Amino acid sequence: MKQTRCLRYLAGYIVLAALLLLLFLLNLNAGSVHLSAGQVLHILSGEQTDHTAIIWEIRLPRMLAAAILGGALSVSGFLLQTFFANPIAGPFVLGISSGAKLVVALVMIFALGQGIVLNSAALIVAAFVGSMISMGFILLISNQVKKMSLLVISGVMIGYICSAVTDFVVTFADDSNIVNLHNWSMGSFSGMNWSNLRTMTVVVFISLLLTFLLSKPMGAYQLGEMYAQNIGVNIRRFRIELILLSSILSACVTAFAGPISFVGIAVPHLVKSLFRTAKPILIIPASFLGGAVFCLFCDLLARTTFAPTELSISSVTAVFGAPIVIWMMLHRGGKTQKG
């Protein structure tokens, strides 16, 4: 039995790794300028061609950013699902991404108006502040309502309010660069560069390492607060750590790519279904790989489906993620009624 589980886990990781490699190759080849696998390999090996800049300055940074940020968003969703003990909790649904979007938009508009150039760290800090404000409202509401459905509805309403205020501010901003802000507010991996990539890599992987170190108390917490307390977990500190790590990960995504919907809900669920377990020590790295695969796939469609017109990444992730969430809710509802 144990050997069968180990083989299933190994097969799950192999499937995710194979899909990731395949999507890496497809994303490098596909675009307004199609390149063969041989051409891409020659460019990556250092050969200078007419298309070198396309690979090194446009496609490769964008592809790596989509993988890193997609993985971060998926892990952030898994942390929130663990925190609230509900599979439909996620940074987008609970309004956390929208709060980050609002504060980043306000900071960017103020900076543009003053002629200030913001660096990546400033955007991440702004997004983190917005995430924490939204999370604060969610926690206050969670103390007043006991039904998760009401909490999720409250999160959706907070998200709508933040998005409405953001759209209002963006609409009446008078800076000529506001077009870039509008594109960012719709969600996109375009415009990534190596400087952005270095910053997000440091933030995401430090957060992932800290998250992985919480695997054991997280596994105990999944079995109930009383059980976790009995084996020595400091519940108050543990919950704060979950909130902070989830907010940092989702804030990093929002700062660089804008709000991206449904990844944080759908991917952890798909990964848990693939591995048939919710053990954090297995699901945290698997969620990261799954989020990378999902966002690379969606970004490929966003770039190529109606090329040269590019779709909003959030629109594409919603097309694939929303049906999964609906299925989850129907499946859980059916189980509840049978129980």
UniProtKB/TrEMBL annotation:
Q: What is this protein called?
A: Iron ABC transporter permease
The family annotation for this protein states:
Belongs to the binding-protein-dependent transport system permease family. FecCD subfamily.
Topology versus the membrane: Multi-pass membrane protein
Q: Does the keyword Membrane apply?
A: yes
Recorded GO terms, molecular function?
A: transmembrane transporter activity
Alphabetical GO biological process terms: siderophore-iron import into cell
Q: Which CDD domains match?
A: TM_ABC_iron-siderophores_like
Which parts of the chain span the membrane according to its record? 62-80, 92-112, 118-141, 148-173, 193-214, 242-269, 281-302, 311-330
PANTHER family from the UniProt entry? FERRIC ENTEROBACTIN TRANSPORT SYSTEM PERMEASE PROTEIN, TRANSPORT SYSTEM PERMEASE PROTEIN
Keywords annotated in UniProt? Cell membrane, Membrane, Transmembrane, Transmembrane helix, Transport
Location in the cell reads: Cell membrane
What do the Gene Ontology cellular component annotations say?
A: plasma membrane
This protein's record includes keyword Transport: yes
**What is the protein's species of origin?**
Butyricicoccus porcorum
